[in-house]
Write a structure and sequence with these properties.
The chain is an alpha+beta fold and 382 residues long. It has helices spanning 8-25, 29-35, 40-48, 68-80, 84-104, 107-119, 234-270, 282-310, 316-341, 351-359, 369-379; strands at residues 124-127, 143-147, 150-161, 168-174, 184-190, 196-201, 212-223, 227-228, 272-273, 276-277.
Length: 382
């Protein structure tokens, strides 16, 4: 399908991103899958290649261009290269965490953190989820009690992407434990702070190269200067950035499904059975036609939402629609594609096998399908 949202600058950027991914990520995917995390040196090189913090002001080393289309290019190329898990540290940093630093940092914080966010010296994570609080963010139990020029943080987080490798962690805490939404704030917890520790690198069904960890805070003294945004406004800050996070997931999901479709199209044209290619059978032909149609329709919707985001018009409801529909479609398409590979689809040597296990979490994190439908339902006055 011909897409109209990209301009020549995005095409040139795509070539650069593709070259970096093929050189620095693809040859290491198997190794990183085995060790359970990527080499942080790759992330630094991504900074050198201009793939990090594109929206950061030029005075701090960024491109000064607030254009999500560049973000979309990166995730599309990562998915096309079968490097979903290995490239997630880049997309999480750019799409999900960076907006908090762009919108909420004081001048002093910009000078302290922004250069490293661009260079790759500072890999980021965001810590919201707890063992007893997932979709219900207001139910978090991690506290941050003011003590002079510091907050004393106690509690834990789980399922934290970039949890092992991250240098800066935007952490949702309760600065007023008596309140729910109004008592939440965001603190930046840094690697090396006394009392801060990381648990095990969690073993997951998929995304094996992406580190997911438990984080523990035992009376960690965090300077008040690390408060991100306004005290007590943490929930509002989180809600404001969730539409972009969910659009990022939808963008990655449609690209992942597209990659799986492309691999499958090549396979069904080459694989022969009963003296003909399996793609010539009506059931296969119709399956491919159905997937092609659904992917084109979904891509059109996602592209429209990227345009809306750039115009600062993306609503929570529209992002929720994109997130649940496209992540469910991703799983549908990849499952169907694996079936068309037959027995070979169950073999790790084919990328469709990794895509199958990596895709499953997409309907869960960033807000489950059920939560997305609840958001949309409420917008209808129900």
């Amino acid at each position: 399908m011909k897409r109209s949202i990209f301009e020549p600058d995005h095409d040139l950027f795509r070539e650069s991103a593709r070259e970096f991914i093929n050189r620095e990520i693809v040859p290491n995917v198997t190794k990183w899958e085995q060790v359970g995390r990527v080499d942080k040196d790759m992330f630094r090189k991504a900074g050198d290649a201009g793939l990090l913090g594109m929206a950061v002001d030029e005075e701090y080393g960024g491109g000064g261009v607030d254009d999500f289309r560049f973000n979309a290019v990166i995730v599309e190329e990562i998915m096309a290269a079968d490097a979903f898990a290995s490239g997630m540290c880049i997309t999480l940093h750019n799409d999900v965490v960076l907006p908090y630093f762009l919108e909420l940092c004081t001048q002093e914080q910009k000078e302290r953190w922004h250069p490293g966010l661009v260079s790759g010296e500072l890999m980021t994570a965001i810590a919201m989820t707890e063992s007893g609080a997932g979709s219900d963010l207001a139910g978090i139990a991690t506290t941050a009690i003011r003590d002079g020029d510091h907050f004393v943080v106690s509690g834990s987080k789980t399922f934290i992407t970039n949890g092992i490798n991250s240098d800066l962690i935007v952490t949702a805490v309760k600065t007023d434990p008596r309140e729910r939404h109004a008592g939440m704030s965001l603190l930046v917890i840094e690697e090396g702070m006394e009392g801060f520790s990381r648990g095990r690198n969690l073993e997951k069904i998929g995304l094996h190269a992406q580190d997911t960890a438990e984080l523990f805070f035992e009376e960690v003294r965090v300077p008040v200067a690390n408060l991100l945004g306004t005290e007590g406004e943490g929930f509002r800050h989180l809600v404001a950035n969730l539409p972009q996070e969910r659009l990022s997931l939808a963008t990655g999901s449609i690209a992942h499904a597209q990659a799986a479709f492309d691999w499958t199209l090549v396979y069904v044209k080459e694989r022969r059975a009963f003296d003909q290619t399996i793609g010539s059978f009506q059931t296969v032909k119709h399956a491919m036609a159905e997937m092609r149609t659904k992917l084109d329709i979904a891509q059109t919707y996602v592209d429209a939402q990227i345009v809306a985001l750039n115009a600062h018009e993306l609503t929570a409801e529209e992002a929720a629609k994109a997130k649940w529909w496209v992540t469910e479609l991703e799983n549908e398409v990849i499952n169907r594609c694996l079936q068309l590979f037959g027995g070979w689809g169950y073999m790790e040597e084919y990328p469709i096998a990794r895509a199958f296990r990596d895709a499953r979490v997409q309907t869960i994190y960033g807000g489950t399908t059920e939560i997305m439908k609840e958001i949309i339902g409420r917008s209808l006055g129900l």
